[in-house]
């Protein structure tokens, strides 16, 4: 996970603490909003992902149940990422890097299945 944190910090031009929070928020979102079986398999395939989710306050807005309100989970996670200081360009960079990392470790099919299981996510990835 340290490799992904460093990669995202460099590509998005953000500090590593913010990169770590962003990764935690996105992984928490996938875990909570995606197909449970497939999302669990995806998180398990990413080295350090579960520990990152468990050790942070990632997904506080989502876990409070606000993800299902108007605009859905995708809008809630975007708002949470903006809340830690990311702009839309940063969010796109972070998301693409996480998806690429996930594809390397879990395979294209599992990543595609998780993305497809979350309404509206496909247009952002």
End-to-end Cα distance, whole Å, is: 20 Å
What is the number of independent domains? 1
Please report the total strand number as a whole number: 0
Which overall shape is indicated by the principal axes computed on the Cα atoms?
globular
Counted by DSSP, the helix tally is 8
Query: What percentage of residues falls in helices of 4 or more residues?
Result: over 70%
Which spans have pLDDT < 50 for at least 5 consecutive residues?
59-71
- Sequence of secondary-structure elements: HHHHHHHH
- As a whole number of angstroms, the C-alpha radius of gyration is 13 Å
Overview of the structural elements:
This protein has 125 residues and is an all-alpha fold. The chain has one domain (2-117). Helices cover 72% and strands 0% of the residues. Helix 2 packs across helix 7. The longest helix is centred in the C-terminal third of the chain and has 19 residues, at 88-106. It starts with a helix and ends in a 9-residue tail after the last helix. Mean pLDDT is 88; it is low at 59-71.
């Amino acid at each position: 996970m340290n490799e992904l944190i460093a990669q995202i910090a460099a590509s998005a031009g953000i500090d590593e603490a913010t990169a770590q929070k962003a990764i935690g928020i996105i992984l928490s979102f996938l875990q909570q909003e995606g197909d449970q079986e497939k999302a669990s398999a995806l998180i398990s395939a990413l080295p350090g992902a579960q520990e990152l989710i468990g050790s942070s306050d990632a997904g506080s807005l989502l876990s409070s149940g606000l993800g299902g309100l108007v605009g859905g989970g995708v809008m809630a996670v975007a708002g949470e990422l903006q809340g830690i200081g990311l702009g839309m360009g940063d969010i796109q960079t972070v998301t693409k890097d996480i998806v690429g990392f996930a594809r390397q470790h879990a395979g294209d099919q599992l990543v595609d299945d998780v993305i497809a299981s979350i309404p509206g996510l496909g247009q952002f990835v």
